[in-house]
Structure formats: structure tokens, C-alpha cells
From TrEMBL:
Keyword Signal: yes
Entry keyword annotation includes Membrane: yes
Biased composition regions of type Low complexity, renumbered to the chain: 402-422
SUPFAM superfamilies: Phosphoglycerate mutase-like
Bilayer-crossing regions: 427-456
Pfam family, one: His_Phos_2
Gene3D superfamilies attached to this UniProt entry: Phosphoglycerate mutase-like
Stated family: Belongs to the histidine acid phosphatase family.
The protein's name: Phosphoglycerate mutase-like protein
Native source species: Stereocaulon virgatum
Signal peptide bounds: 1-18
């Protein structure tokens, strides 16, 4: 997705008018700039650290700091209250550092004045690092260095989603593009064949090729045969990668392909509902994730009908923000019917000269919608508990194995012990009860569809409302 295109295609509305009070936000962010996937180990660069820190600083200046234009009602402006913020990220060498960098911008060191305490004996203790604030980042999936994988299936071990994504590679659209772009990709051989073999230089590897060249264009002082990389060529590389990845993440006639967006939608709803039902408790939720989650959600929420740029891959440090606000008096906490939701997207690093833009969800025309309408709209595709995930995915083994099946299996093998393969109990209930679901996932099968790449398996810990998802593209 081109970083400036989205921002110029719609009138930029005021994020919050004087009559409004912001009650809470859910921020979903992509990681910052990184090294290429095809040259592991993949790590966050200094530029990437700067990008997410800059975005975190903007969100602080907009939602947190005293006097900010949309300061969240009751938020601690300087010293963080850990009860007010929930942050999470996959345990990954790019995503986790990005989350930490963002949080450093959101709540920076408090300085020598606030970061000290006086002991009973009169000793003044100064906090190290100028009062650096430690904000815990919960792990939403396990497995380090997932960025080292050139292509990751966004459907986790959801059987039906994997089948759906695989179907793209046998579709007429894919076959036509693969054939029509053979010459284009072959012409790039002198640029990339030292890293990507000639037999893999095709549309099948559209994202990997784009990613390698994109990183080189940002960081490399010299690039082999760089004269081949004209502006038109770079635009075509990005457009083909956008097409390739969006079609793996979403299909209008087969919504299960967008399982990553469906589970993300449930997480957003559960987090915001916790703020609404808790009368302002836990008003800030921040999650870092993969670009496939963006694309899947874009499709499910009909954002691609609002603006065609939503078909593209979001740039590094892109953010989606779901803002709860009210036009009523904020105290006592407003009733649900007096609360509204507004969706913002920003492509790339957020800064003072490049702020998020509001877009209508679910094919509507208004940029904001009543809370109850938001709940209804997002529940049409959100998947937020294990039974619903198992049913949608068509899975019947692992965490989806029924107790009766597990019992039968133990009996047939002559085992006298209870089965360990039954369904894990959700730690809490559903969205309306505002609780967090926790599920232990089994071995996650990631089908590698790009020719020449191996099958990769990673164990994933699914925590804090992630039901059966996700090993995703980043």
C-alpha cells in the first residue's frame, strides 16, 4: 500500500471534536522496518525502531498527554497505570521489539523529578534510565524468529482456511497472472538471482521478491543491475505483491480464508467491550501483528469497497485504531446507547504531518457508528471462541477433539489413563461476559505454497483471546 495514497483520497476529518470525549482505544500495529525475509535472521532495524517509536509518540500526544486533543477520559498522563493498558505481541525478533519501541513513545521516561522515592530513613532513591517505564507485553503466540520464514500461511492450523488459500493457486486469476508476468520476473534475474534462484523467480514468489528488493532500495548502498529497477518496475513489483497477498488473505465468496481477520475482530470487540462494560476500566489496548491480519480484516469489514488502496499490503508501522467516544457527559460513565465507535487507519509511520484517517466500516457512509451497531456489524464475521473456531475450520483433532472421541481413542488403545487430547476449557465465557479466552494450541501446520520452500511447523501458544489463530504473514 502506497504510504501517501490513502491519506489524500479522503477528506481528513477532525479525529475528535470539542464536544466529544474519548473513552478508550484499541490500536493494532504492524512492526517497523526490518531486514529481508530471504536473508535471515530477520531483525528490526534502527529505522524500524525509530518508526514505531515515532508512532507511539504521536498516539501519546493525541490520546495520553495532558492537553492532548483527544485525551482519553481518566487516563494517567505521565506515570503509566498498568491497570489501564494491555499490550501484546507475538514472541518474535521483529514484532516484540516493535511493541516495546511503540510503548516507549507512548509512555516515555518520566525524568528525575517523578522517578524517585524517599525511604523511611530519608534516603532518596533515583530510578535508573531516567525513570524508564516498564510496560509488560503479553505473548499472543510463541516461536521466535518467525520473520525468518519467507512466506507464512495466515490461517494457522485452520483446515478450511488452508484449503481456501491453496485454492487461489489453482484459480484462473492466479494462473493468468503467473503466465503473463513470467517475462517481467525473469528480467529481474540479474538483480535477485544471487539470493532467489531462477526457478523461483516468478509470481509464485511475488512477495518474497518484492520484499528483497524493497529492503535493498531502503538500505543497500549498491544493488546489482540497479538500472533495471525503474520507478515503473518498482510499482509493478509492489502491485503484484499486493494482489498475491490479498488473495491469500481474503476471498469474498469464501470468508473462512480470512480467519486471521475474523479472530482479530473478536479480539477488538472483546477489548472494547471490557472498557464499555467496565465503565472505563482498561481503556487502552495495543496489539502488534502481521500484515495478513490487516488485509483479512479490510476484506471482512468492506473497507476495500470504501477505498481500493485497502487491497494493498500495509507499510511498516501501519496502524488500525478503533476509538470509543461519547457526546454525553463522561461521568458517570455513559450508557452503551450513548457510546460510538470510529475506525482510523494510517499507512506507515504516524507523525505530526501524517495523521490517521477515519473510514466507514461495514459498507456504511458515516465514519462513526453507534456502539450497538458496531457490535452487530463485527459479530457478523468475528470468531471469538474455540467451539466456533473449530466448527468454522472443520477441525476435529487437537484442541478440537471432542471428549467422546478422546475417550474412545483411549479405550481402543487399551489405555487406562484419561486422554490428554480433549478440548481445552476456555478460561472464561464469551464476548457479552467480557472475559478473555485462553486456548492452548497444538502443533500448527503451516503449508508453504511457494515452490522450493520447505514445510515449516512451529508450536504456538494462543493466549488472550486468540482462538486457534495465528501464524501469519508479517
Amino acid at each position: 500500500m502506497h504510504p501517501q495514497t490513502v491519506l489524500t483520497l479522503a477528506l481528513l476529518p477532525s479525529l475528535s471534536t470539542a464536544a466529544e470525549t474519548v473513552l478508550g482505544v484499541y490500536i493494532f500495529s504492524r512492526h517497523g522496518d526490518r531486514t529481508a525475509k530471504s536473508t535471515p535472521p530477520t531483525i528490526l532495524t534502527d529505522l524500524g525502531y525509530s518508526e514505531v517509536f515515532s508512532s507511539g509518540t504521536w498516539f501519546r500526544n493525541h490520546y495520553i498527554a495532558n492537553g492532548s486533543p483527544a485525551q482519553i477520559h481518566g487516563i494517567a498522563p505521565d506515570i503509566v497505570k498498568l491497570s489501564q493498558i494491555t499490550a501484546s505481541s507475538p514472541l518474535d525478533s521483529v514484532l516484540m521489539p516493535s511493541a516495546l519501541g511503540f510503548l516507549q513513545g507512548l509512555y516515555p521516561p518520566v525524568g528525575s523529578t517523578l522517578a524517585q522515592e524517599t525511604l523511611r530513613n530519608g534516603t532518596v532513591v533515583q530510578a535508573p534510565l531516567n525513570g524508564y517505564q516498564f510496560i509488560p507485553v503479553g505473548v499472543v503466540s510463541s516461536g521466535t524468529l518467525s520473520e525468518d520464514t519467507a512466506w507464512l500461511q495466515g490461517s494457522g492450523n485452520c483446515a478450511n482456511a488452508i484449503i481456501s488459500s491453496n485454492n487461489y493457486f489453482i484459480s484462473p486469476e492466479y494462473k493468468t497472472l503467473d503466465q503473463s508476468t513470467r517475462g517481467f520476473y525473469t528480467s529481474l534475474g540479474p538483480v535477485i538471482n544471487a539470493t532467489i534462484p531462477a526457478d523461483q523467480t516468478s509470481f509464485k514468489n511475488a512477495f518474497t521478491i518484492f520484499d528483497l528488493i524493497n529492503v535493498a532500495e531502503i538500505h543497500n548502498a549498491t544493488i546489482p543491475s540497479s538500472d533495471l529497477l525503474t520507478n515503473d518496475t518498482l510499482t509493478q513489483l509492489r502491485t503484484l505483491a499486493d494482489t498475491h497477498e490479498f488473495n491469500l488473505a481474503y476471498n469474498a465468496s469464501d470468508p473462512i480464508r480470512a480467519i486471521a481477520g475474523a479472530t482479530l475482530a473478536a479480539e477488538v470487540l472483546q477489548a472494547l467491550n471490557k472498557t464499555v462494560a467496565g465503565a472505563g476500566k482498561a481503556p487502552v489496548t495495543i496489539q502488534f501483528g502481521f500484515y495478513a491480519q490487516f488485509q483479512a480484516f479490510f476484506g471482512l469489514a468492506d473497507l476495500t469497497q470504501t477505498n481500493p488502496d485497502f487491497f494493498g499490503i500495509p507499510d511498516y508501522a501501519s496502524t488500525m485504531t478503533f476509538e470509543l467516544f461519547t457526546n454525553a457527559a463522561p461521568s458517570p460513565f455513559p450508557k452503551p446507547e450513548d457510546i460510538n465507535v470510529r475506525f482510523f487507519f494510517h499507512n506507515g509511520t504516524t507523525g505530526n504531518n501524517s495523521a490517521p484517517v477515519a473510514y466507514p466500516l461495514f459498507g456504511r457512509t458515516d465514519n462513526s457508528l453507534p456502539w450497538n451497531d458496531f457490535v452487530t456489524g463485527i459479530n457478523k464475521f468475528a470468531i471469538g471462541n474455540q467451539p466456533a473456531w473449530c466448527e468454522a475450520c472443520g477441525n476435529s483433532t487437537g484442541v478440537c477433539a471432542s471428549p467422546s472421541t478422546s475417550s474412545s481413542r483411549s479405550t481402543s488403545t487399551g489405555s487406562g489413563s484419561s486422554s490428554s487430547g480433549g478440548v481445552s476449557k476456555a478460561v472464561a465465557g464469551v464476548i457479552g461476559a467480557m472475559v478473555t479466552l485462553a486456548v492452548i494450541l497444538g502443533v500448527e501446520a503451516i503449508v508453504m505454497l511457494i515452490a522450493g520452500l520447505r514445510l515449516v511447523k512451529k508450536n504456538r501458544l494462543n493466549a488472550a483471546m486468540r482462538q486457534g489463530s495465528d501464524t501469519l504473514k508479517a
